[in-house]
Design a protein that fits this description.
Helices cover 33% and strands 43% of the residues. The protein has 127 residues and is an alpha+beta fold. The protein has one domain: Nuclear Transport Factor 2, Chain: A, CATH 3.10.450.50. It has a six-stranded mixed beta sheet with strand order 2-1-6-5-4-3. The chain is globular, with a radius of gyration of 15 Å. The protein starts with a helix and ends with a strand. The relative contact order is 0.21. The N terminus is likely disordered.
């Protein structure tokens, strides 16, 4: 067994996803950024496809400028492969510019690389 294989066996993508969502909830942009690999991708019906940590973080900052009071809850976090987890979530927030409420439910698959950095987030909103 190689050191890399041993590391993968001890890596828990579900636990890493919980930590990732916790720093999002804290609006800790430095910690959020530290989760992403340089060439990560992020896709969502709401934001489209993003490539690269810089673009992903710009989108996070825009979103939380508009919805600074977001409260999210994960109802399911499960490992789906050695380096990926599925998270089912719901959130509530209020638009800073319009005062309109935002309520969303959905799921995302978060995939990590061998170093534990996020390389892909795929978000699907529930209707």
């Amino acid at each position: 067994m190689t050191a890399e294989t041993s590391k993968n066996m001890s890596f828990d993508p579900a636990a890493a996803s919980v930590r990732f969502h916790a720093v999002i909830g804290d609006l800790d942009f430095e910690a959020i950024e530290a989760f992403f690999a340089d060439d990560a991708t992020y896709s969502s019906g709401k934001v489209g496809g993003l490539k690269g940590r810089t673009d992903i973080m710009a989108a996070f900052r825009r979103y939380f400028t508009e919805y600074p009071d977001q409260v999210a809850e994960d109802s399911l976090v499960e490992q789906v492969s050695p380096l990926a987890a599925r998270v089912v979530w719901s959130l509530r927030a209020t638009s800073a510019s319009t005062g309109e409420p935002l309520v969303r439910r959905g799921e995302e698959t978060i995939t990590f690389n061998d170093q534990g950095k996020i390389i892909d987030v795929h978000v699907t909103d529930f209707q």
